[in-house]
Amino acid sequence: MESIKDKVAIVGMGCTRFGELWDRSAEDMIVEAAEEALADAGIGIQDIQAAWAGTMFDYTGATIAKPLKLQYIPVTRVENACGTGIEAIRAAAFAVAAGVYDRVLVVTYEKMKDYGFPGLPNDVERLPRRHPVFEVGYTAAGNYALAATRYFRQYGLSNEEGKLTLAKISVKSHYNGARNPRAHLRREVTLEQVVNAPMIAWPLGLFDCCGVTDGAAAAVLCRAEDARSFRDDYVTIKGLGVSVGPGQGYVRTDYDYTHWGETEHAARQAYEMAGIKDPRKELDVAEVHDCFSISELIACESLGFCPKGQAKEDIDAGTFTQEGELPVNISGGLKSFGHPIGASGCRETYEVYKQIQGKAEEPSRQLKNVQQGLIHNQGGLPGKFMCCVLIIGAP
Amino acid sequence: MIGITSYGAYVPLWRLSRDAIAKGAKGEKAICHYDEDAITMAVAAAADCLHGVEREKVDGLIFASTNSPYKEKQAASIVAAGADLRRDIVTADFAGSLKAGTTGLRFACDAVKAGSAKQMMVTAADRRQGAPLSAYDQDLGDGAAALMVGDSNVIASLEGSYSISDEILDVWRSSDDTFLRTTHERFAQTEGYVKVISEAIAGLMKKNKLEAKDFAKIAIYTPTARRVADVAKKLGFDAKTQVQDVFFSVMGNTGVPYAMMLFVAALEEAKPGDLILLAGYGDGADAFAFRVTEEIEKVRGNAARRGMKKHLDSKMVINDYKTYWLWRGLLNPITEEGFLPHHYWKTSPVMLWRERDRILRFRGGKCKACGAVNFPPQRACGNCGTEGQFDSVRLSDKKGTIWTFSMDYLSSQVEVPIVCPLVHLEGGGRFQVYMTDCVAEEVKVGMEIEMSFRKIMVRDGINNYYWKATPIRA
Question: Which of A210, A368, B31, B219 is deepest in the core (most CB within 10 A)?
């Protein structure tokens, strides 16, 4: 297999404000994110040769071709549930690496709040192929809670210790989100508030769950050798891994629900391509898929940031805070920045891209000397995941 | 010899304190949980009756109820699937009348006697609804019974039967009514119940040359706690020694299965040689005389059977009319559908049909190559990857343990929180199910569970049945 390390560059990115954007349609968000990305790359829409649309619910490439008035170029709609964002970037990157196109656009988005979701989507009008009895009524929070319960049990945490450990993750996410101008939830919370919040799916409470958010993010990609014609501070793809498991977590009795196997496989592919041996030391920042607090905890272990069962020690020590050894979800994460399903992976990439360039929107958020960072994006539920891991860095 | 070869009963775990209906009213009534109906209770009673019975040797199933969830579409076929009976059997719904259960029993006895079936199971279940705060609302309870009729290993031989058909409007419900209607109570009970059931019992005794003193117990339907005494007095039975306790203060009048449930309770206490009277009432009456045999000890010795006594002894009492109303689906029409997302949720007759063995019979696939149990059944084994080499295995009668769980506060509108465990079954297999009949706060990893047939949701007039886990019922 051929590596695409340093063959593809990101030369422009855009991201809307995330939140409950009552006054904006999907078209408004698509145009806003794409225009920022194109302006960032210093090109116009007419320069784009092919495009990828990342969305869970809308269909065909026309979903972005129509608002952007793309003129008969190839446009593909990509879907991998919550992992759609990186999947769209991957498709675009491979097309560029293959030499088929010179300049491509990725636009990812989700318009969640037009449909009044009470939690993560249960909107079956748009998800028709669900089982009439096996899958009725199960929520994403409930499925991730299965992992939290099991994690507490396996590593001997009392419910109180477990809840407190998860609460520290949420407090950090809200602290980071509060400082990020484009984040959805911009309010700090205390440990006490998190622990005592209303239950969503025990042991996960309100502040253990990400927001239901509208938003869009976009990227312009080109071959690395052409990148300097767009800008000096471009970033390149260092590693890219994707893994889809056989989805037997609900069937096989030997899956432990305390590690994400798909994440481990995707990370292995990405680290190998990027030449990373010790991710904790070699990465300067990580945006991980934290739809729930437990998701971030297990992701940190499965990505190899710390040994299995030991995330609590690192959380207690502040390893993943802005000042810590490896800042995780400096953006606020899905938790606080928000989670418009199809857009999250691309939005996470936006954060790492800006951190590498030293252009974090609020200066106090800017990390020092970021050379490379990791983006982790997964779709599905524990036991039945797809996962994307993208590593980008200074060329 | 024709007669009863096995018996089973089901009383829901939940009881409503009558005090919740009328301040100071005494006792409790058995009530369905929100996910139970006549069909699910019949499946539970059938499972209770099938302990020690080879399911493959059951040749027919009757479902008797005034409360089938379908006006058109058979319920017995659902019960037979839930009970995992053979396909080449005869199934029938006996409906409309309170005596549907005993009438079904008579037809089952006739079928076995005629030799067209070796073993027939008669299930009866009801979930009747009195108008809010009415006397019926206080008196009626929910429950089910199942009797196996056969011609070998008989535990209670059929000595004779006698039926009456009687046209009277004493209690009725049109197809558009939600609640039962009745007329002047004393008219209904004296001209209807007391007169007609007595006529059937007297006819039975005369035909078979039996006298009141010959019976060890009489298990007969009664509309209220006291009316049965009028029948006993009229026919010369001793109300204190011969009349089976009607469990009115702990269960209530369960309708169609009521007489059969009382008969099961009588069998639980009977000695070989005892003569037991069973009589059902409704638009007429059916009366039977059964003689208990030595075989009863074998059936009674099966500890897995809960029958009436164990079911009555294990209970959770609520004293909250609002919750009862919510469970009945009467507080808010949305709750009929069970869960919040179900406003959107679709069901699929095609999928329910294609996957009927896994959904209703709860059959998994045991890999012939590695022995792993896969549920739901897979095309290729989740454990070893071997394609298409499975034995179909029944999982509904297996116990299991909770391996992990959540308590979901968003999923259900009726049960908050609803416990969602991953279960490991004895003999292998892991699957995700809902938990029911539990106290959420008491659920723990490692807790033992058993499976129970329940209604998941109602959508487009389709009742979606599937299995849930419950704590092991005492």
Answer: A210
